[in-house]
Amino acid sequence: MSLLQKDRSLIAVLGDEDSVTGILLAGTGHIDSKQKPNFLVVDAKTPLPKIEEAFQEFSKRKDVAIILITQQVADQIRELVDSYNQAFPTILEIPSKDHPYDPSKDSVLKRVQRLFGEEK
Description:
Layout: H1 3-7, E1 10-15, H2 17-28, E2 39-41, H3 48-60, E3 64-70, H4 71-76, H5 78-83, E4 90-94, H6 107-115
Parallel strand pairs: 1-2, 1-3, 3-4
């Protein structure tokens, strides 16, 4: 395992309170030396710039391997999510309690379908 991969040990989370809480209860919570958490709870009052800033911050952190983002939150910053093209951290869109997963919106799935010539 390369040094770059070994250092990436965290999962960052952007989503509604229930989704983030569930993932944090699984033991993924972390606050770094600069007091920056690896999660953001998004609700109706969360300003769009704060969501965008958290996504960009998580995507630049060298200790984050995966960013889990509920599809509802991903839809709010769809342009950022769709334009992200790095291997690490990997972006995974997940369903939330109130919003089921829609594969037609998932940017990673779209890329895979394009790769295999299955996009409609």
